[in-house]
Specification:
This protein has 326 residues and is α/β, with parallel strands linked by helices. The chain is built from 14 helices and nine strands. It has a five-stranded parallel sheet with strand order 7-6-5-8-9, covered by helices on one side. A four-stranded parallel sheet has the order 2-1-3-4, with helices on both faces. Helix 2 (54-65) crosses helix 12 (283-302) and helix 5 (131-145) crosses helix 6 (161-170). The chain is globular and about 55 Å long. The chain binds phosphoric acid mono(formamide)ester and norvaline.
Length: 326
C-alpha cells in the first residue's frame, strides 16, 4: 500500500519522531559530504499551481542529493481540473514518476491526487494546510530547544493554511498552542474542534497578542494575505496591524521565545526588521530544515518494504533528543 503525506496527521506520533531522526541523520551526512542516495534513480514530479521559492528548491535539491531527479511542472503545464481532470493527472504522473509533490489552491485537488495516484503524493501547500512546513518548523524547535517538553507555541496572525497544520501537529505532539487572530480571521472551527477532541494538547484561541505571548517558547507568524488573497491585502493590512510581531511583542513574550516565520515575509507588515533579523529569530534555520525534513519524508514514503524500513531504523540514533541529533 502506498502512503501519502497530505496532512501531518497522516503520520503517527512515532512516524513523526522517525522523520526527526532520519532528517537529523540526512543533515549530518550532507554536512559530512557523504549523503546516502536512498532514492537513486527515482523521479519526483513537482506540480505547482502557485509560486514558490523554498518548496521548489528544497524538493528539487533534496531529490538530487538523494540520488534522484525532480521535474518542475508549472501552472501552464498542468491545468489542474481545467486542462485535464485531476484523477487523470494522478494516473499519468504515476506512470512516469515514483513520487508526486503538489502545491495547489483547492485542497480537494491533493486529496484527489492521493486517491488516484499509484505513487506517494506529498502536499506542498494548499489553501487549507502546509504540512511539510510545520514538520520542518517543529524539527527546528527541537534542534534549538533540545526537547519538546512543556512547549508553548503562540501563532499570531491569520488563521490560514500554516495555522491549520500547527493544529494538526497538536493532534500528534503535546503542546500548548495559542492561535491569536483578529475576529473574523480565526482558524476553521472543524479542525479546531478535532484538535481539542484529540485531547493531547491544550489549544486555545485568543484575540489579545500581548497577553497570549507571555512565556511562549515560539512566536510564529505568517503573511496577512496568503497567495490567492492579494485583492484583500489592503483591507487585511488595517485589520491585522495590532497583530504585528514587533520588539514590543517579543519583549512581552520574554527572551526565551524564538521567532519563527515560514517565509516569504512581508517585512514591516506582520513582522518588523528588528525581530526577523534579531537574536531570537531562527527563520533561516527553519527554511534550511525544509530540505532535510522533506528528504526524510520522501525516503519514508518511498522505502516501504519491511527490509528497507529495517535498514533505515538500524542506521542512526533511535531517540530524538538534540544530543542524538548532533
Ligand atoms: N515557506 C514556503 O513554502 O515558501 P515558498 O512559498 O517560497 O515555497
Ligand atoms: N500562508 C502563506 C504561506 C506561504 C508559504 C500562503 O499560503 O501564501
Amino acid at each position: 500500500m502506498k502512503r501519502d503525506f497530505l496532512h501531518i496527521t497522516d503520520f503517527t506520533t512515532d512516524e513523526i519522531h522517525e522523520v526527526f531522526n532520519l532528517a537529523s541523520r540526512l543533515k549530518t551526512e550532507l554536512r559530512n559530504g557523504n549523503p546516502t542516495q536512498y532514492l537513486k534513480g527515482k523521479s519526483l514530479a513537482m506540480i505547482f499551481q502557485k509560486p514558490s521559492a523554498r518548496t521548489r528548491v528544497s524538493f528539487e535539491t533534496g531529490m538530487y542529493q538523494l540520488g534522484g531527479h525532480a521535474l518542475y511542472l508549472s501552472p501552464a503545464d498542468i491545468g489542474m481540473g481545467k486542462r485535464e481532470a485531476t484523477k487523470d493527472i494522478a494516473r499519468v504522473m504515476s506512470r512516469y514518476n515514483d513520487l508526486i509533490m503538489a502545491r495547489v489552491f483547492d485542497h480537494q485537488h491533493v486529496l484527489d491526487l492521493g486517491e488516484y495516484a499509484t505513487v506517494p503524493v506529498i502536499n506542498g501547500l494548499t489553501d487549507y494546510n502546509h504540512p511539510c512546513q510545520v514538520m520542518a518548523d517543529i524539527f527546528t524547535v527541537l534542534e534549538h530547544r533540545g526537547n519538546l517538553d512543556d512547549l508553548k507555541v503562540v501563532y499570531v496572525g491569520d488563521g490560514n493554511n500554516v495555522a491549520h497544520s500547527w493544529l494538526n501537529l497538536a493532534q500528534r505532539l503535546p503542546m500548548e498552542l495559542v492561535i491569536v487572530s483578529p475576529e473574523g480571521y480565526e482558524v476553521e472551527e472543524e479542525i479546531l474542534e478535532t484538535t481539542k477532541d484529540a485531547g493531547l494538547s491544550n489549544v486555545s484561541i485568543s484575540h489579545e497578542p500581548m497577553d497570549a505571548v507571555v512565556d511562549a517558547d515560539v512566536i510564529y507568524t505568517d503573511v496577512w494575505a496568503s497567495m490567492g488573497q492579494e485583492e484583500e491585502a489592503a483591507k487585511r493590512k488595517k485589520v491585522f496591524q495590532p497583530f504585528q510581531v514587533n520588539a514590543e511583542l517579543m519583549a512581552a513574550a520574554g527572551s526565551q521565545a524564538y521567532f519563527m516565520h515560514c517565509l516569504p515575509a512581508h517585512r514591516g507588515e506582520e513582522v518588523t526588521d528588528e525581530v526577523i533579523d534579531g537574536e531570537q529569530s531562527i527563520v533561516f534555520d527553519e527554511a534550511e530544515n525544509r530540505l532535510h525534513v522533506q528528504k526524510a519524508i520522501m525516503v519514508m514514503l518511498t522505502i516501504t518494504t519491511a527490509q528497507d524500513s529495517n535498514f533505515l531504523s538500524l542506521q542512526g540514533p533511535s531517540d530524538n533528543s538534540a544530543d542524538a541529533m548532533r
